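@channel anyone free to eyeball this complex?
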Amino acid sequence: MRFALLLLAIFAAGSTAAQTTYPSRPVTIVVPFSPGTGIDILARTLGERFSARWGVPLVVENKPGASGNIGAESAMQAAADGYTLLMTATSFATNVALAKRLPYDPQKSFAPVALVATGTLALVVAPTSPARTIKEFVELVRAKPGVLNYASTGNGTVQHLTMELLKQALGIDLVHVPYKANAGAITDVAGGHVEAMITPVHTAGPLVKQNRLRMLAVLSAERSPVFPSVPTLKEEGFPDLEVEVWYAMLAPAGTPQPVVARLNSEVQEILDSNEVRDALAKQGLSPVGGSPERLAELLRTELARWPRVVAKAGIKAD
Amino acid sequence: MEILSNLALGFSIALTPQVLAYAFIGCLFGTLVGMLPGVGPLTGISLLLPVTYGLNPTIAIVMLAGVYYGAMYGGSTTSILMRIPGEAASVMTCIDGYAMTQKGRAGPALAIAAIGSFIAGTVSVVGLMLLAPPIAAVALKFGPPEYAALLTLGLLVLAYLSSGSTLKMLLMALVGLLVGLVGIDQMSGFARFTWNVPELADGVGVVPVAVGLFGISEIMLSARSSGALKVQKPRLADLVPSREEMRASAAPILRGTLIGFLVGVVPGSAHIISSFVSYALEKKISKHPERFGHGAVEGVAGPESANNSATSGAFIPLLALGIPSGAVPAVMLAALMIHGISPGPQLMQSRPDIFWGFIASMYVGNVVLLILNLPMVGLFVNLLRIPYAYLYPFILALCLLGVYSTNQSTVDVWIAIGFGVLGYFLRKLEFDTAPLVLGVILAPMLELAIRQSLAMSGGDWSIFAKRPIAGTMLALVAALLIYNLLSRGWRTRVGLEEK
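replying in thread with the prediction:
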């Protein structure tokens, strides 16, 4: 009994301290993907700055598995006190379209903190491909419907779904060849084993510069600053898809509003520094920031878009 | 002679105290990571990656590469001493390495593994240096059909694993292949045997299965039959390999080096396959194949050389083309790109300091590892003197910790325990569990490669025969199978040996 009281006292002391001075102890940020992935590097880049500014360590915890669902679930179950955060990516929304049962509700289980960064997606083909432009590519595919292939980083991934969206928008038919990861997929496109793939600009960048891949178009509204010569879909007279990969920070639902606001302004200030801008640019990412509402808005758009694509393409994953 | 002046430049960088210090840290960390059951080079490199952000790019890649080949050295230690594969490429080493330990030859096994790794590491760097551009072009010719053919060749190793009943061996391989199919089907997204456990969606990991079947079951057996299975305590004189053991290892080390280098270039988890192919080859050409599985030193020398040599092979597509051939080179690519450097054919011209500094550091790293590992042989072997009552609970805890830390998943821990119990009963019934592990390793890779190929061809199986590299490899597989079926050796393995 005395022990329980003691515990209670410690707990109470801890929580009042937390209310007055957040953060007073280490903050964990769950990254639902493996170490060394783009999102992990991003989280660590932010984490380093957070730790320096706050004087408490921000610890990155990698919980990979099930396209990010395992990590999201573990962050959702954590106490909503601002000491556990989730760094997540586009799959956070696309999983909703794919899974029959999801351990979390992307809107109800989490409080948006900030949209951190976005990355441009591009359509690439092998250097040996007869298609030199996106128009030639579309003609080539239309001439042989269902014969040419495209690579993706796996069934239900953003790269897979985006290509399905592109197929629907352009009225073309390509056969899906899934890979386990980007490295294998991009190697096989460069080797000419598979005709095309959609990939983030920065992962294709070095190979495009060496003429081992040909970049036909970017899928965003504007051209990529890294490849200013590559047109957007809209410029070439195709429907504007405006798909990007995005990275965002969320907190478990019920996290006190002042804590969310504090985190949001920290993210904004970190993103504003030139050093971080440069670090992100090297990974092909554009810093975004903005209010939590901006992230909520993005989630609404994404959650409306992907189920339609998935239903139309007949993709299934559970 | 240009290459010599370049190499001189490389050594002038690699031998500066700072670079040397980081190479040493990388090697040491890699060795430790390799020894820890379940934690492989990928986890090790990923853990160190954030540390490299603030370093200069040469130091970063030198340190990370040190972790990679250091892990290959370290992986052999627990395999040989405790039958616990530190990572998947060490599975083959468990078989004869541990058998040597049981005979009191743990010291020689460790020494041969270290020497083989050293020779393979050094020779393959020469290959990397001289042959990178032409070989890299060949790597690009490897698409899914070629990979499927290579994996089929890897599957052949099963034929050389059976030390007992072939029927039991095939049964084990089949169970392994089935376990390997658990998880979300990559093509259709259908969940197979996942029982609504989200952690199973990505499949059953090789590490928990291998640690369970090999390591945990071994601990249970030893605990149960106190004394009967006891490992012979090593004497001091037994630390050094005998003249015979050295002679028997020489050719397997060289063959393993060559196999590892060539297979390592192939994209994917080729370093694992290289150890299988090397083991199969050594047993095939051995005059006494019956010694394999009972402590044949060739069964340690070949695969250990192969998996080290494969690490150099794996760097070729990365350095020559800027294409990462697998998960580990992909993380190293990320490490370089953070510094704004993209590897590729121009790297040699644009940043000779990085390229040649890296190459030279691999020579240095291999020497560091040999110096680090040979004196430790005695120390490690002495671990076996610790009474089991103290040693085994500690190892068991390390096993479970290693399994957990790979994915921070408790489900993996339960899988390891489950396979530990299964392994205990299987071994009581005299089933060999190695084919099961091989099945788990090969099934997902083989299935994906076959189905990617069929997606590419629109369902036409002739894609495997029409493509020259794939066709040639499959013809080789067929020829080996037919030869085996016809030869007497096969018949004795199939039936006559059974009692």
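from a first look: Chain A touches chain B through 60 residues (CB under 8 Å).
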